[in-house]
Design a protein that fits this description.
Blueprint: E1 7-8, H1 14-17, E2 44-48, E3 54-58, E4 68-69, H2 85-99, E5 103-107, H3 110-113, H4 124-139, E6 143-149, H5 155-161, H6 168-183, E7 190-194, H7 203-206, H8 213-237, E8 242-248, E9 251-254, H9 259-282, H10 287-296, H11 306-312, E10 317-321, E11 325-328, E12 336-337, E13 344-345, E14 351-352, E15 358-359, H12 361-375, E16 379-383, H13 401-419, E17 425-428, E18 451-453, E19 465-467, H14 469-479
Parallel strand pairs: 1-17, 5-6, 6-7, 7-8, 8-10, 9-11, 10-16, 16-17
Antiparallel strand pairs: 2-3, 2-4, 12-13, 14-15, 18-19
Helix pairs in contact: 2-4, 6-8, 8-11, 12-13
The structure holds 6-O-phosphono-beta-D-glucopyranose (BG6).
């Protein structure tokens, strides 16, 4: 049985959902320079080079330090309007309430509160917007679960300070956190620091130019310190606050029982996820990463009290996303599979989504157990779901049985982990509960929601909200607290 008061809801992020990118005094974020794209046309960031020519770089390409981010008015930037939660929040929250949500995961856009990131005074209009959103949620009995930073940052902090590579970012971020913790005291109790902290790699999430491995680990160290200080600050401002981490839990399997494959899987799992949860749940760097830095002669500058900060800033719970598993192999000729965050080898035992992400419901039970065995702290599944194209019938109905099947199979495994393994699971917020822009491709057609938003990849459409079959199904799941999931 799921516990009484289990949190049922859905999840979104400001840069993919909110829009209103220049309204209410909001400043530009790194994510605002990201174009749309598709599997055949990758997403790019737009920059001005030294001669003021606009150049487009793919997210994975290095940004030369001399480049400045720029917007080209002939291009489409999906974050600018996203699906316009900014103007639709009342309607959207009413739809969530109709499904029976008792929580809603969303992120605050940092540049709505501090448009450049290094100001002393916050933007009152931005603070007021989130007051309105939280009040609307609470009026419907919906508890906000807030991510402080989800895949974006003030553009100014990237251009002027080189993003998280600069230690000053810690103080800017803490000032932002102190402002929102104080303002929303009594309205928000569940917080998460950095979304998918283990997948922050690119310019939009770290804001770092000329990235290399040493700069990467230095930026990550600053983020760990910022996160640990945020946990302490959250508790100080309101002892009722629960401040969690957010991990992309990409489950990995060795391809064979050959110890070479098993060893490689262990190394990949550490580097891909455990480094991040080990530091944030245990409060210190694991020996395997310290040894790696030594071997590679990577020097990460740390201040004297950093070790104590990490120890005193352990998280209250683990929020994690789970979409798929992956296969790790030492074979050089392995066919590679896609998935959230990494490329791995294909798994012949699993089906794949239309975007070629493997579908592995049992992997969710395994993930819950791995994390529980390792850390023994409460967990919340804050993202899970199937990205798929939907078809609107002439009467406006949308028959998304594939999504229902995916979610049912995953919730059944969650239930087993709770009932048969005793893991401490406190909530479930499937991703993109109302259709929003894809983080990976910038597409609209890769939809996750219970609610359809009438918009295409180029941003055309009336943005009307339509209920899918999964809307009525999820309502029944919540009504029985998930306990009758096998029969729904
Ligand atoms: C997670 C992110 O990685 O996966 C979300 O936290 C993202 O922001 C989600 O949208 C699904 O990925 P995609 O690429 O299908 O949008």
């Amino acid at each position: 049985m799921f516990k009484e008061g289990f949190l049922w809801g859905g999840a979104t992020a400001a840069n993919q959902y909110e829009g209103g990118y220049l309204e209410g005094g909001r400043g530009l974020a790194t994510s605002d320079t990201k174009t749309n794209g598709s599997l055949t046309r990758p997403r790019k960031h737009s920059f001005l080079d030294e001669d003021n020519n606009i150049v487009y770089l793919r997210g994975s390409e290095k940004v030369p330090s001399s480049y400045k981010a720029v917007l080209d008015e002939t291009m489409y930037y999906p974050s600018h309007q996203a699906v316009d939660f900014y103007h639709h929040y009342k309607e959207d929250i009413a739809l969530m309430a109709e499904m029976g949500f008792n929580c809603f995961r969303m992120s605050i856009s940092w540049t709505r509160i501090f448009p450049k990131g290094d100001e002393t005074e916050p933007n009152e209009e931005g603070l007021k917007f989130y007051d309105n959103v939280f009040d609307e949620c609470l009026a419907h009995g919906i508890q906000p679960v807030v991510t402080l930073n989800h895949f974006d940052m003030p553009l100014h902090l990237s251009e002027e300070y080189d993003g998280w590579y600069n230690r000053k970012l810690i103080d800017f971020f803490l000032h932002y956190c102190e402002t929102v913790f104080t303002r929303y005291k009594g309205k928000v109790n569940y917080w998460m620091t950095f979304n998918e902290i283990n997948l922050l790699r690119g310019y939009d999430t770290l804001g770092v130019h000329d990235m290399n491995e040493e700069k990467y680990y230095q930026a990550v160290h600053h983020i760990f310190i910022a996160s640990a200080k945020t946990v302490q600050l959250g508790h100080k401002i309101d002892p009722e606050n629960k401040v969690g981490m957010m991990l992309a839990h990409i489950l990995t399997y060795p391809e064979t029982c050959n110890p070479d494959d098993v060893e490689m899987e262990m190394m990949v799992a550490r580097r891909l996820k455990y480094l991040f949860s080990d530091v944030q749940c245990r409060g210190y760097y694991p020996s395997y990463v310290l040894k790696e830095w030594e071997r590679k002669q990577i020097c990460v500058n740390q201040e004297e009290d950093d070790a104590k900060t990490l120890l005193d800033g352990k998280v209250d719970y683990i929020g994690f996303s789970y979409y798929n598993s992956g296969v790790i192999t030492t074979r050089k000729d392995a066919k590679s599979a896609l998935g959230n965050g990494i490329k791995t080898a294909t798994n012949p035992y699993l089906k794949e989504s239309a975007w070629k992400w493997p579908i592995d419901p049992k992997g969710l039970r395994i993930s819950l157990n791995l994390l529980w065995d390792r850390y023994q702290i409460p967990m919340m599944i804050v993202e899970n779901g199937l990205g798929a194209e939907d078809h609107v019938e002439s009467d406006g109905s949308i028959h998304d049985d594939y999504r229902i099947d995916y979610l049912r199979d995953h919730i059944i495994q969650m239930k087993k982990a709770v009932e048969e393994d005793g893991v401490d699971l406190i909530g479930y917020t499937p991703w993109g509960c109302i259709d929003l822009v894809s983080a990976g491709t910038g597409e609209m057609k890769k939809r996750y929601g219970f609610v359809y938003v009438d918009m295409d990849d180029e941003g055309n459409g009336a943005k009307n909200r339509l209920k899918k079959d999964s809307f009525y199904w999820y309502k029944k799941v919540i009504a029985c607290n998930g306990n009758d999931i096998e029969n729904l």
